[in-house]
Amino acid sequence: MATRKKDDGKLPRGPVIVDVQGKSLTQAERERLLHPLVGGVILFARNFASVAQVRKLCEEIRALRKPRLLICVDHEGGRVQRFQRGFTRIAPMRELGRLWDSDVLAACKRATEIGRTIGRELRAVGVDLSFTPVLDLDWGNSGVIGDRAFHSDPRVVAMLARCLNHGLLLAGMANCGKHFPGHGFAQADSHVALPTDERELDTIMAHDVAPYDWLGEALLSVMPAHVVYPKIDAQPAGFSRRWLQEILRGKLGFQGLVFSDDLTMEGAAVAGDIVARADAALAAGCDMVLVCNRPDLADQLLGALQWTPGPQFETRLKSLFRDRVRV
Question: Active-site residue 287, yes or no?
Answer without folding.
Answer: no
